[in-house]
Every structure is written in structure tokens, then in C-alpha cells.
Amino acid sequence: MTYIHTSRLYFVLLFLILSFQLCCSAAALSVQCKIINLEYVECIWHPNTSTANYTFSSVFKNHASHDCTEYILEHNYTVGCRIPLLKVPRRFTAFETTVFTEGNHSIITPFDSLQRNVHLNPPYNLSVMWNEDDSTLLLQWNSSSHLKKNCVVHMVRILCNQRDTNQSSNVTEMSYSLSQVSQNKHYVFQVRSSVADDCGSSDFWSDWSAPVEWGSAENIGRQGWWQWLYGILSVFLLLFLGLLLCYCERKRIILLPVGPDPSKNLQDLFHKHDGNVESWVHISRELKEAFEPDYTELSCDVCEVTSPCDAGPTPVASPASQTDKCDEPSTEEEPAEQPSS
User: Fold this and answer.
1) At the N or C end, where does the chain have fewer CB atoms within 10 A?
2) Over the range 61-97, which residues count as b (16 or more CB within 10 Å of their CB) and which as e?
3) What is the predicted pLDDT for the residue at 316?
């Protein structure tokens, strides 16, 4: 009996988990709709990475509901729907969509109006005319919008020499004039469109049109060639300045030579030869022997002579000590003999 209750509990928990996942996946879906060129409504539900095929229906206010007849597929799964507007007289009334997910869950998304969600097609047939008299360019194009002429506003993008970008918006005419144009430059033009403020405005611009170019390709190649030439000349100029600097330095050394540093020459005398000049100057053995004396001399001892006043009592000299004295003449005077009485 306990086993039966446990299995029922597991079944209920599994059912709740699956239901919660389905509800969360349904709540995660969001539907975004735009009116494409006033021809049809395009609705996309996100996230579009689901592996399920959802069904879709929509309804305008005071009109009957219609199931989707043209699905947008991605990887063989439905991610959106297109609803024609040719038979809808009032396109900017309230609009409501319903997405049916697995398990008969439905996601209803109401829209008060799709007036600010108009996405026009990009302009086409762009052409450029050159007026040589006043040096101006005239850019013209066509529009496939079903709105009135004063209800469409355009934006012109100009790319000059692939560097400078200039954008001019709020162009109501289907033409644009550019003055003071240089024939040595290369221009690229693109145009996009949107709904003007006088007719309700829109939050979306169309895609950019196909680009149209004006300018001589020869001038562009010539300009690039000159840039390469300037770079090469700059490198050669730097090399020339470096060689000139080295040449001037050599001339300065020749005209004003730098005095030698004696400390470098005397380092070997003190570090390698320990102050021995003869070893440092590398005197030959023969020259060294030439300066040595080749005779001998007898040595003589020098005795100190003391005066009689400084000398004390004279001891009796022994015969041996007298013979050791040097033969030097005596500077003392003998005392005069007293006359006898």
C-alpha cells in the first residue's frame, strides 16, 4: 500500500515539473511585430531557438481573427508569421496576436497601434548627375513606399575618399544636391527612408540602399601612388640626415681632436704590474744590465766625534779600543805646558 502512494506522489511531482517548464517556456516567449512597407505585418516570437513548431493567429480591432497563412521558418521550425494588409482598410487600429505552444498553452500579446512600427523598404535606382557649371552633384532615387510623398523622409550618407562620412537627414525630396565638389575625390552615396513626423513618425529606418559611386578611379590610384611616394621620400630623408650627422661628427673629430685620457694608459701600470715601471715599459735585459755598475768600493765606517764639553769623565781606554778608532785627524788642541818653577 505504501508503494502505491509513493508512485502516485512521484507521478504528481513529475506532472508539476513538466507543467512548470511549459509555463516558463511560454512566458519566456515575446512577440514583436512591424508593418513592412505598408504591405504586410511581420511578427517574430523570441526566443526563436525553440525546437517546437508554434501556431499563430492575429486579429485587428473590429475584424475577424485569421490564422497564419505564411510562416517564417528557421531550421525547419516556425519563428514568425507574415499577415497581408491589402484587405485591411484601417491598418493602425488595435492589433492582437496569439501564439499557441505545446500543450494548448497560448500567449496573447496586444498592441495599441502599429503606427510607430512601420519599416519601409530602402530606396532604389540611385543616380548621380554632375553639373560642371557650378561644380555640383545631384543625387536622385526612387521609393517603393505606398505613402504620400510628404509622408516619407530620407537620410543621405556620403563617403568621401573612404575616410570622411557625412550624413544629412530630413530630406523630404527624392533628390539631394552637393555643392563645391572636387573632381579629384571619390564619393559614395547611400540613402534610407522613414515615416515623417507629419504622418505619425516611426521608430524604424529602412535599410541602406545599394551604394552609388562617383569619381575617377584614376585619381584615386594616383592619390594612393603619391602617398606611397611621400612615404618613400620620408624614409630616404631620414637616412640622409643620419648619414649627414655621422659625416659632420667625423669632421668635428678631425678638426677638433679629443685629447687622450691618460688614466686608461696607466691602468695596466697599477693593476697588472703593481707599480713596477721597468716591467710596465718592457725594458730589455741588455739595457737593464747596461745601467748596473761593474766595479766595487771599500766601505768605510764613519764615527761620531763628540766635543769635550759635552763628554763626561773619560774612561781609561784600553789598547784594544784605541786600535779600533778610525784614523782621522784630531781637531783638539793640546794644552800648553806649564813653565817649571
Assistant:
1) C
2) eeeeeeebeeebeeeeebbbbbbebeeeeeebbebeb
3) 47
